[in-house]
Design goal:
paralog of FGE (formylglycine-generating enzyme), 3-stranded antiparallel sheet, globular, 15 strands, alpha+beta, 329 residues, single chain, 4-stranded mixed sheet
Length: 329
């Protein structure tokens, strides 16, 4: 397989969340937003609160809280960076509301997904017949963390909460669809990582170190392998999303376009219709995108605007993914 080697304080429960479904006006006539908590989990529905940190992305499911998904409100942010290969020009993007997984998909979650498909008769393939997990991995020194067992799939001891790796682009699409979500666009991913102040790293402008993220070129790595999701609470993004720099890079849904930012639409960009990378030195391939860098990449790769082209059929110990939930009233 082609490959490239390329956790914020936990939210506290709202003390005021009450299952109300109407608005009221104060003495000035200004309408006050009334919080709705239909599932009684202590977190108000995202559209009924101004407290972004406590917003509930699915008020019909008490297992969905800000501990599992973070609400990203609609609005404009600056995407990209000038004078940076593949990442310019910087430009404004207007995104609709959405929610994004607080953590990357773990080996446990992905093995549950594989097991469900196995029971349905799809043994490590999606309905289109595409392999979902690279069980025959031979392109890096790391053993697979998910293993075949007699009745389906198991996980290597100690790696249950590490982010899943050795997955392909379509693996992310298939899992997220199974989870009633989708892969993020790169615009959705970048806003969740950098917020609206244009920060260089999810935590701000401080240079990376091993207390903030899992990164470093081979020979100078913090860890030298993946770590459990949420291991770096000081490196959280402004929206409370964990691991948006390092540990593993993450598939996004867009094709890679070398000059796409110069013509990207303002509102909810989806990327070009196809993608191709060519460095002019004989390295050319059909290209999708991963974001964030991983445990074996340097400072440049874990910047919030950094874009890495990857072949969609590529997999490695350095690439995983997370999902987003589109929101409707």
């Amino acid at each position: 397989m082609l490959s490239m080697l390329i956790f914020a304080c936990q939210p506290s429960k709202s003390d005021t969340a009450v299952p109300l479904d109407t608005d009221t006006a104060d003495d000035t006539g200004i309408v006050e937003l009334m919080e709705i908590d239909a599932d009684g989990d202590g977190y108000p529905l995202w559209s009924s609160t101004l407290d972004v940190s406590n917003a509930d992305c699915d008020d019909n499911d008490p297992t969905v809280t800000p501990l599992t998904e973070r609400y990203i409100p609609a609005g404009i942010f600056q995407m990209g960076e000038n004078n940076t290969p593949f990442s310019g020009p910087a430009h404004d993007v207007l995104l609709s509301d959405y929610c994004i997984d607080t953590y990357e998909v773990t080996n446990t979650r992905f093995a549950d997904f594989l097991q469900d498909f196995y029971v349905q008769g799809w043994d490590n393939v999606n309905p289109a017949g595409q392999e979902l997990y690279d069980l025959d991995d031979d392109d890096d020194v790391f053993p697979q963390r998910i293993e075949r067992v007699a009745d389906g799939y198991g996980i290597m001891l100690g790696y249950e909460e590490h982010p899943v790796t050795e997955v392909f682009l379509w693996s992310g699409h298939t899992f997220c669809e199974w989870d009633k979500k989708s892969l993020p666009t790169e615009a959705q991913w970048e806003k969740a990582a950098r917020g609206t102040d244009g920060r260089t790293f999810p935590w701000g402008e401080e240079m990376p170190n091993c207390d903030l993220t899992n990164f470093g070129f081979i020979g100078e790595q913090c860890i030298g392998d993946t770590v459990a999701v949420g291991s770096y609470p000081d490196g959280v993004s402004p929206y409370g999303v964990h691991d948006m720099a390092g540990n593993v890079a993450e598939w996004v849904s867009d094709w890679f376009g070398m000059d796409y930012y110069a013509q990207s639409p303002l509102e909810d960009p989806q990327g070009p219709d196809s993608g191709w990378f060519d460095d002019g030195q004989g390295n050319a391939f059909e290209a999708r995108l991963v974001r964030s860098g991983n445990h074996a990449t340097g400072t440049g790769d874990i910047q919030t605007h950094y874009r890495q082209p990857e072949p969609p059929a590529g997999s490695s110990n350095g690439i995983g993914f997370r999902c987003v939930r589109p929101l409707d009233e």
